[in-house]
Amino acid sequence: MRLDVRWPIGGMFTIFGAILTVYGLVSNRAMYEKSLGINVNLWWGLVLLVFGLTMLWLAYRAHRAVKPNVTDSTSTP
Amino acid sequence: MLGIGWALRRVIRSSEDFFLSGRSIPAWIAGLAFISANLGAQEVIGMAASGAKYGIMTSHFYWVGAMPAMVFVGLFMMPFYYGSRARSVPEYLKLRFDEKTRALNAITFAIMTIFSSGISMYALAKLFELVLGWSFHGSIVVSAVIVLIYIFLGGLTSAIYNEVLQFFLIVLGFLPLVLLGLKDVGGWSGLTAKLATVATNAGFEPGAWTHSWKYMDSPSHNPMGMEWFGLVMGLGFALSFGYWCTDFLVVQRAMAAGSMTAARRTPLIAAVPKMLMPALVILPGMLAIGLHASRGGFLPIGSDGQPNYNLAIPMMLGHYLPSGLLGLGLTALMASFMSGMAGNVTAFNSVWTYDIYQTHIRPGQSDAHYLRVGHAATVFGIVASVLAAYSATRFNNILDMLQLVFSFVNGPLFATFLLGMFWRRTTSHGAFYGLLTGTITAALHYGLTLPRGAVSGIKGGFFGAVLHTYPSEMALNFWTALFAWTGCFVATLVISLLTKRTKTDDELRGLVHSLTPRQRDGDMPWYKRPVTLAVAILVVSTLLNVIFW
With a cut of 0.85, is the ipTM above it? Predict the structure, then answer.
């Protein structure tokens, strides 16, 4: 059973995005002086989160299309 | 952040069966793997370094070099590679010509992989030095040990998989850097204003860093020291076609595709993101040199009194990204160094073990014997890479060094391929002695010329007499490639005409253009045909050239 590459990509960026978003919410504002006053952790974290979830959704959709009604545990990371 | 990268690597490794299942990879994955194989440390660090040193002219590596070459590979070369079922370029040379041509190519290729891996090692060590504050010598040792462990743990077994992941990691890790940098200088027009100071300080017209063609009428008018003919022929033709057509680290990715059509589409699909890559890798370098000029020293000065352009990306990361996002950027960099080194050392191992040792030194041994030889070759490859990494410290732009190596290896090889694939009269002797002549021509040219301001030695001129001085290292590389290509082409042609053919038409079926069945795309809808995609790519890259003229 082959693994759709979108699963690990989606998984990785969802985790990265979530961590960055949370970090952006709790971190000290003064830290963002070097990034022109923009909370880049928060904003880029959200971008990564959306990207990761989109990949996961695409992978899920493709998985469902190929094998409806079959749950194959080996195909999820 | 780094820990997550490693943890994910483990997850991915458990799915090795994915790419071992043979030629069944969807075209878009093969396409992304195709450019990821080339998106190593050399791309990220080297292109940024060149963006700082030579300005927007670096984009010629993409819009004049890579685009036509990738289109050519997809339309014309892939049918032979895919059809001949050769697994590597040396193997193709053996099928088309003979063992000695394969051996010669295997040797030069092995040397090239060592330099490539050494350059990645240098860049990784520099990063450790900068971020963690270790000494350069200690950093080199640490990077060597890390690569050794990585390879022995089987790091490259699911290469294609990792590469696709890494592609996204690099794109998404560096994009915020570019956006912040551009916002800081006030967009393209702000950058143009800053780079005008850089250009006038260096004694050029104000637009020399931000126009890709305008100042190419004479070598003395632009920072790269090239005029249009040498650039188009040396970079656009000899170096780029040589690299994209014959570097099997890259070509192999397309050969993993599921069908001939998918294999032909792979380089074309890859060309689309490749075309946009300058924004991600050249722009940060240009932003860095802009900062360097306006702040009086943003980049550290090397022993040659010049800024160390190689540090453009690491310095930019530290300058703009706060902790958190900085971790993502560093992960992206390290991932690219690691795979760059591991990929090259593994390629060295397989070329040495199968194309040289098993064929010429000790044939007919047990598999266990060759496995041991392979392990020894990996260790040797890493030790040799350390030496190459030290020689890389002599270059303030690793792309200068990398293209020098390519000009020796890929430049002449492309002439051999061109003649071998399109002229059935090309003989084995012609190919072998032609390739040898090409490589020797490269060495002669390199040994008799020097870039301006350099001392004889690793940068050329080691034959004592210096016949010509080029304005930059890159100019010397382009001309070396062109000389090497011409030397190989002429010698192969003449010797082929003087010697008898050793292979019959029947043996060359599938290996030579005129003896290979034509690809029929007629039954596909027009928008799915490789030709359509190819034309679109060429039109858009022409437009990009015009925009940044």
Answer: no
